[in-house]
Every structure is written in C-alpha cells, then in structure tokens.
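Saturday, quiet lab. Running sequence design on the structure tokens for the scaffold JK sent over.
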C-alpha cells in the first residue's frame, strides 16, 4: 500500500506542519474506503520498480530521468512494459531511462507559456490542484521549489506519479495526495497555488476560487488556467449536455467574467498572461494514450467548433494575488 509517512516527516517542521492535525485522518479514511478495482494490480507494478538511482535527472528543461545508459536493452523493455500498464498517460512527456513516454498532452508547451509570468518558485511551498500524473510538479521542483504538493482524486494518476518518483528516487520534496481540494482544510500556508484545467469541471466555480484562496498565505500567488470563451464580463457558457464530448463541464466564462469572479473572491493584482487556442499538435492520441483525443472532439467540417457546436477549446491563464483573508466573504 502506498505510504504517506515520508510526506508527514517532511512537513513536520515546515509551514504545513499544522496540516498534520487533520491530514493523517483524512488519508487514513481514503486508504480504508477507496476500493478502485485496479489499485492492487498497480501497487504490485510499483513494487517491481526497483532500479538504481538515475545517473542524471533534469526537471528544469524537461522531465528526464536517467541517460538511458544504465539499463540493458532487456531491462529497458521490461521497464517500458511495466510503465505501459499505467496507460493511458495523459500529461507529460517523460523520458525515463531512454524510454520516451509521448503523452496525450504536450504539457511542456503549457509550462513554457505559463512559467515566464509567475513569481520565481525558488524556496517556495507550492500546491498543484488537479495535478494529474504530476508532470508540472516536476517542473516546479526544477525551478527550485522547497516543497511541491499535488492533489488529485484519481488513483491512476497517483500511481503514475509514484512510478516516476520511485524511478527518480524517493528523496525529493514532492508528494501526491489522492484528495480533492474540497477535502482540504483552509491552510493559509502555500506561497503559490496552481489550478490548471480544473475550474470548468467544478459545479460551483466561485467556491473553487475561494478554496484556492484559502490554501494561500496572505500575498501568495494563484496561477489559474481554464477554458474560456469570448465575451464581456457577463458572458458565461453553460453547456446544455456535453462540451467536447465531456459530460463534466459546467461553466466556461469569458476572461473578463473570470477576472470579475476572482475580484469577488478577494484576489488582487489580477491579470491575464496567456490566451491560447488548443491545437491538434498539443493534444492528440499517441501510443501511450491510444484513446480519442482533441481531433475527435471537434466538428470535422469546422475545427473552430466542438462536435456539439460550441466554440473550440480556448484556454486562458490568469495570475492573481491573495488579499488579506476575509472569512466572511460568503
């Protein structure tokens, strides 16, 4: 069973130490009650990932673990087969002992668009909400973050992250917790909080913004990336059924509306730093993610529309600062 003891030890003398009053009980309940059918199989695979410490790692310009020269061709093939059990791999790419995991998303492209605009992460405590397999967490670590914590309720993403971490070496200050943000108490402790690709999945986007705010220290920085549409501050798309074949998309605001929501949620210094239409080169099917992808979600006769007739995915990145806490906001 995946253990969280090393995380408890690392935060015991940090700004997150008061989390220890509640977190072990929350995670203990998760371990007792979570019964995902594939989890025992995935944990057996994780236990087979016993490899020497890699001869090189690079989290600054990529997520590269090992030069590819430490393992024989047979060992590489075995490792590739083991990592293949965790398909589909959606966020990446990863290079692990010479094995190129070409994921559905070129998450490095998003990072390259976002990272020039954020406050330097060196020595900061960082939370990544909806972190997926943790690709961006490794890039945050590569920027010198002191602690990186990712949360995502998906057991598959947790196991993908654990696989990468076990091969990279378990001593890095980077941890995945299988939780949703609604399960976190207000910590008021993180220097930087990322929420990328989450807001449109939330039934109550304002509540999500307040939950993000309540994880930040006063003056901390929020990096929010989400689907948007064109329009003024009163423009919000609420899909009737599905959006891009997704049935869990609730609200797509305009950039102006999103900035207003952030202002009402007690953020200041709000600015849009990137606006990008998702391309077929950035999100696509691969050998590591052989299922449907973006091209299947768009109208084949008009790629500017989804198959439902809505505007094709456009993503905005907003950066904002937490104002003084205001617990009576809502």
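Result came back. Writing it out in full:
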């Amino acid at each position: 069973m995946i253990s969280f003891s090393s995380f408890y030890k690392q935060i015991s003398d940090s700004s997150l130490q008061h989390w220890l009053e509640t977190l072990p009980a929350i995670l203990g309940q998760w371990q007792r009650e979570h019964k995902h059918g594939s989890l025992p199989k995935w944990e057996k695979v994780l236990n087979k990932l016993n490899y020497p410490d890699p001869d090189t790692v690079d989290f600054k310009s990529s997520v590269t673990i090992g030069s590819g020269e430490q393992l024989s061709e047979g060992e590489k093939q075995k490792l590739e087969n083991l990592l293949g059990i965790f398909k589909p791999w959606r966020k990446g790419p990863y290079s692990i002992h010479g094995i190129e995991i070409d994921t559905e998303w070129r998450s490095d492209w998003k990072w390259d668009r976002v990272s020039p605009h954020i406050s330097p992460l060196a020595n900061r405590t960082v939370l990544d909400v909806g972190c997926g397999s943790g690709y961006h967490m490794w890039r945050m670590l590569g920027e010198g973050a002191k602690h990186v914590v990712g949360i995502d309720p998906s057991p598959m993403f947790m196991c993908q992250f654990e696989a990468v971490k076990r091969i990279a070496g378990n001593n890095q200050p980077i941890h995945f917790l299988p939780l949703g943000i609604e399960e976190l108490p207000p910590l008021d402790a993180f220097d930087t909080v990322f929420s990328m690709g989450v807001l449109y999945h939330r039934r109550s986007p304002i509540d999500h913004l307040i939950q993000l705010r309540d994880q930040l220290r006063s003056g901390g920085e929020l990096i929010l990336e989400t689907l948007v549409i064109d329009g003024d501050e009163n423009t919000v798309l609420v899909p009737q059924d599905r959006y891009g074949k997704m049935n869990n998309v609730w609200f797509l605001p305009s950039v102006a509306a999103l900035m207003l929501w952030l202002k009402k949620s007690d953020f200041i210094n709000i600015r849009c730093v990137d606006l990008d239409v998702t391309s077929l080169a950035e999100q696509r099917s691969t050998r590591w993610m052989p299922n449907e992808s973006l091209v299947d979600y768009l109208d084949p006769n008009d790629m500017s529309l989804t198959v439902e007739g809505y505007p094709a995915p456009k993503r905005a990145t907003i950066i904002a600062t937490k104002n003084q806490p205001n617990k009576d906001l809502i």
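Notes for JK: The two ends are 40 Å apart (CA to CA). The longest strand covers residues 216-228. Ask whether to fix the surface positions before the next round.
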